[in-house]
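tokens incoming
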């Protein structure tokens, strides 16, 4: 995998070698901030020449500063007053770009940075360093060799900073795990391989259980199995349990769409861009990444992660348009378009989750519709919910984490659009309101349980690059839901 920096936190001490990274709040005297590091005093003039004016996320990079013990000084601009969690993450990601090839970096935290800000900064730095280069036979480090970097963070309050960083690192690792799963091609990551990656969370104390085809047949999961029947890869359902809360507390549940590849099936997709459909398990990847984060930071919550894993392929045994399947809930579905497969997988996953674990709330994540990109682009995930409080708390967590969501409506008029002539419902509602009718379909499988659906088709993959992400798979949803759990279901 990518060569990630190792990050440690220690008491402030004179920097003797390597690169120094300073964080300067707007308007601060950089020379004063740098102190002895500024050697012969070149920083003020460098800042002037580079027109380093104090705009957030801009970076001043000075190589071989005269008289300095540091080989390089990078100043990242920081503006603490308006720096939210996502603000600090971006501030931390930006300077990593300039420092990628350094072996030794020391971050001197400014006075404006408390433990939480330091942790977010380091989280951004680490996530920015992520690259998916395992299939590049020539690695792109210096001299063709990947280079390990040590980042030491100097902070006066080491205890607080270390404890904040322990949690933030757990979350960053969860994000990067989700990115790995999304970036991995489908020939390598089939249904069984994906399930095995989730099963590996047992090392962190997560309990796991895998349902195979036989078990799913017995449970009557005709909707999910109908999608899977066109592939030689067998379907799997992976359950992950983190029991960090009180024994009597009902769990919160996260359900993910895990279509390891979506050709569209018999309603086959056009060739152009079809390779992106290796990312059609972005919802499931986020659930696995989230469970990693919760377990690694020992969150005090009971959480269920459940993912439905299938491959949607055209084949002699594939399901046809017009087929009618019976879901685990007993409701029948006319499959008008085999490319609307995610909702069929989720129908049974949601039913199983609801019946088996009786969660206090269920949140599903799915790369469900192209239409959500038409509506919201790549900067918000679509949010649908049967519960205003859940919708509001998710919106808040989105604003905090920077993984933003935007609520779209549900209602009986939309629900009618998926009524079928031959069965209880059909799996598409026509061209209009495509994301809404998909959500309306899911709603028929959640009963009275408070529920939210996040359509992450625009945010999980093919991501615009940001200060803290240069990866195709973004890991979207992990930080959002970790923040949501912390703010609403812990302590
Ligand atoms: N996996 C796709 C949705 C998708 C499209 C995700 C682009 C990411 C990028 C989903 O299974 C699908 O094919 N949806 C169809 C639904 C239609 C047939 C009603 C779509 O959006 O076109
Ligand atoms: Mn599809
Ligand atoms: Zn799909």
């Amino acid at each position: 995998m990518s060569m990630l920096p190792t990050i440690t936190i220690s008491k402030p001490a004179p920097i003797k070698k390597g690169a120094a990274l300073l964080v300067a709040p707007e308007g601060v005297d950089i020379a004063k901030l740098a102190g002895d590091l500024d050697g012969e005093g070149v920083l003020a003039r460098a800042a002037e020449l580079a027109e380093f004016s104090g705009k957030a996320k801009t970076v001043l990079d000075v190589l071989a500063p005269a008289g300095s013990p540091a080989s390089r000084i990078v100043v990242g601009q920081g503006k603490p007053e308006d720096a939210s969690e996502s603000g600090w993450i971006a501030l931390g990601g930006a300077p990593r770009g300039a420092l990628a090839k350094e072996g030794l970096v020391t971050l001197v935290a400014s006075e404006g940075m408390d433990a939480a800000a330091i942790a977010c900064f380091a989280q951004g730095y680490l996530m920015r360093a992520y690259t998916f280069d395992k299939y590049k036979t020539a690695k792109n480090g210096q001299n063709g060799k990947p280079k390990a970097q040590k980042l030491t963070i100097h902070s006066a309050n080491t205890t607080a900073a270390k404890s904040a960083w322990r949690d933030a690192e757990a979350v960053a690792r969860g994000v990067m795990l989700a990115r790995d799963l999304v970036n991995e091609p489908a020939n390598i990551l089939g249904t069984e391989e994906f399930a095995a990656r989730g099963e590996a969370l047992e090392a962190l104390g997560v309990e796991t259980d895998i349902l195979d085809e036989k078990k799913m047949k017995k449970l009557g999961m005709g909707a999910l199995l109908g999608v899977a029947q066109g592939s030689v890869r067998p379907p799997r359902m992976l359950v992950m349990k983190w029991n960090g809360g009180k024994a009597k507390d009902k769990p919160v549940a996260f359900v993910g769409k895990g279509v390891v590849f979506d050709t569209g099936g018999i309603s086959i997709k056009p060739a152009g861009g079809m390779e992106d459909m290796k990312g059609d398990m972005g919802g499931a990847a986020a659930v696995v990444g989230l469970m990693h984060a919760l377990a690694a930071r020992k969150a005090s919550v009971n959480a269920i992660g459940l993912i439905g894993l299938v491959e949607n392929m055209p084949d002699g045994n594939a399901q046809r348009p017009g087929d009618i399947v019976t879901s685990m809930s007993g409701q029948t579905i006319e499959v008008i378009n085999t490319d609307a497969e995610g909702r069929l997988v989720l129908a049974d996953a949601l039913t199983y989750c609801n019946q088996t674990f009786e969660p206090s709330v269920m949140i599903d994540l799915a790369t469900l519709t192209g239409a959500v990109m038409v509506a919201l682009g790549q900067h918000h995930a679509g949010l649908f919910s049967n519960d205003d409080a859940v919708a509001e708390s998710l919106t808040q967590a989105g604003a905090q984490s920077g993984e933003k969501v935007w609520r779209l409506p549900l209602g009986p008029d939309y629900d009618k659009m998926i009524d079928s002539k031959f069965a209880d419902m059909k799996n598409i509602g026509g061209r209009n309101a495509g994301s809404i009718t998909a959500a309306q379909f899911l709603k028929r499988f959640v009963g009275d349980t408070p529920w939210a659906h996040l359509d992450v088709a625009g945010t999980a993959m093919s991501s615009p690059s940001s200060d803290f992400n240069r990866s195709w798979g973004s890991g979207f949803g992990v930080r959002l839901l970790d923040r949501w759990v912390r703010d609403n279901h812990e302590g």
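note: The two ends are 35 Å apart (CA to CA).
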